[in-house]
Amino acid sequence: MKLGYHIGYWSSGPPAGALDAITTAEELGFDSVWTAEGYGSDAFTPLAWWGAATERIKLGTNIVQMSARTPTAVGMSALTLDHLSGGRFVLGLGASGPQVVEGWYGQPYPRPLARTREYVDIVRKVVARKEPVTADGEFFQLPLRSGTGLGKPLKATVHPLRAEIPIYLAAEGPKNVALSAEICDGWLPLFFSPKSDGFYRAALEEGFARPGARHTAAEFEVAASVPVIVHDDVEEAAGFIKPSLALYIGGMGAKSVNFHHDVFARMGYEDVADKVQELYLAGRKEEAVAAIPTSLVEDTSLIGPAEKIREELAAWEDTVVTTLLLRGDAATLRKVAPVLS
Asked: In DSSP terms, which residues pair with 92 in a beta bridge?
């Protein structure tokens, strides 16, 4: 199983020590480094800025929100970063949720799967540069149907370094996971658990079996964000992770549409997820954190003494996951890497 480093998106400003952590990840032999975006920092700029200090490690976005840019704009960024990195770029895309898509970007959210299919197809056409890019879809038309009538099909001026750039899709629901297997080169799960492996394996197999699917399971990448904390006290280690889980389960999405909540409900924690969401949305955040059992943290993380983590790692190695994406500063990576090697 490979290791990757996930910087994430910024909070109030640039994360301290990010460059040191990235160069340390490369020094330790990590396979990849990833950036993210929410509604503050973007994913491309930090990746290019800090990635310029690296030589070998793959540079990926986890994730670029599709509603933030047209597919041709994302294709342009992908072409550019792939050239600047010498062919090390990986494009991770995601739909986000209706609160961000409609509230921040002012774009419609309905039918995200069909929209994603059109989006990825256009990005691939931009990168391939075989002919002027055209699209006559429900969501994207190139040239635009309702414009001046003066639009013309265009081909990127930049010649691609590679005929294809890997595209990974962030997905949590089974239909979206199946879509990633059908049209993409990898899947980016956020809250994965070895206990859910059968569920996701079946969703991926459905995608692989569809006509025109790009890959088989053996060729497909699954890069999962997994908190890893080496600590003698399991409860204390879990306490570092619970606030973030409460935020995602309780507050990252509307009560009626929160995909993170649904992940934990499918995992067998529906009552917990409901309670955390109710408390969080009522402003009782500390109580929401306290409502999360340590068992939930252990199901989706690797925490505790080194020997415990090594024993539990075997269960992760038997899943569809091919890369563990870690977080933390340079010192954390140096501490964790030997445990996972």
From this structure: 168
Q: Which residue has the tokens 């999962």?
A: 224
What is the distance, to the nearest Å, from the Cα of residue 180 to the centroid of all Cα atoms in its chain? 12
The pairs formed by 307-310 with CB atoms below 8 angstroms and a separation of 24 or more are: 308/234, 309/228, 309/230, 309/339, 309/340, 310/339
CA nearest 234: which of 298, 285, 318?
Answer: 298
Q: Is the peptide bond before 143 cis (omega within 30 degrees of 0)?
A: yes
Q: pTM for the complete prediction? A: 0.95
Judged by phi (left if over 0) then psi (alpha if -120 to 50, else beta), residue 220 lies in beta
Tens of pLDDT, residues 314-338: 999 999 999 999 999 999 999 999 9
Residue 56 neighbours by CB under 8 Å, 6+ apart: 26, 88
Q: Say if residues 225 and 241 touch (Cβ distance below 8 Å).
A: no
- The DSSP letter of residue 35 is E
Task: Measure the N-to-C terminal CA separation of the chain; round to a whole number of Å.
Answer: 9
